[in-house]
Amino acid sequence: DSSSPSYALKTAGSTGVTAMALKFHASNEAQTLTKIGLTLVNSVGGAKSAGAAGNSGTNGGASDVVNAYIYNGTTLVGTASFTGTGTTATSTLTTPVTLAKDADTILTVKVDLSTIGVSAAGGIGDIVVVDPLNFEATGNSSGTTVTGPTATNTVTAGHQASQRRSARASRSPI
Is the separation of the CB atoms in 78 and 107 below 8 Å? Predict the structure, then answer.
């Protein structure tokens, strides 16, 4: 979504850093969003710290983000944790989000960044990019489970498609 932030310098150990805004658009019927998957896109940057998981340049930024938080306005609706060298995380929303028919719903993803140091996991000078991976929703009238991405249900970075029951998001590094 265009409300996603652009590149910005952030201090290691920062919490609640806005990573992106996800725009969901339900067509044909209202839906209840229950799951959102996130992925860390190969972070790039300088030297890794010599501690914890930070001594390898092959982890795709997994050690740079501790937790992700998903908000609907100011309400926290879900969390996701990137563990070990994993670059994907799924949030089963603690508060499912109703997606009104033919209207946009924007959710904000915020993250906590790892610290940098001898025994810390964060990479030095890394560019951290969080992208949408997938989603799951249920049609409020039909009861049909809608998942994406598929040909008609998409989660895309930096692209807005007008498709039936689609989720649209724009990528924004932090």
Answer: no
68: its two tokens = 């992700």
Q: Which amino acid is at 97?
A: V
Structure-block tokens of residue 61: 């930024």
Q: What is the DSSP string of 118-168?
A: TT--PBTTPEEEEEEEEEEEEETTT--EEEESSSSS---BSB----TTEEE
What is the C-alpha separation between 167 and 1, in angstroms, rounded? 11
Global pTM value: 0.77
CB 63 within 8 A of CB 42: no
pLDDT grade for 2, boundaries at 50, 70 and 90? low
Q: Give residue-wise pLDDT tens across range 150-163.
A: 545 544 333 222 22
**Integer Cα distance of 162 and 142 in angstroms:** 21
Q: 46: Cβ–Cβ under 8 A, 6 or more apart, which residues? A: 123, 124, 125, 126
Q: In the chain, where do the E strands start and end?
A: 17-25, 31-44, 65-72, 75-81, 88-99, 104-113, 127-139, 145-148, 166-169, 172-173
Q: Strand, helix or coil at 101?
A: strand
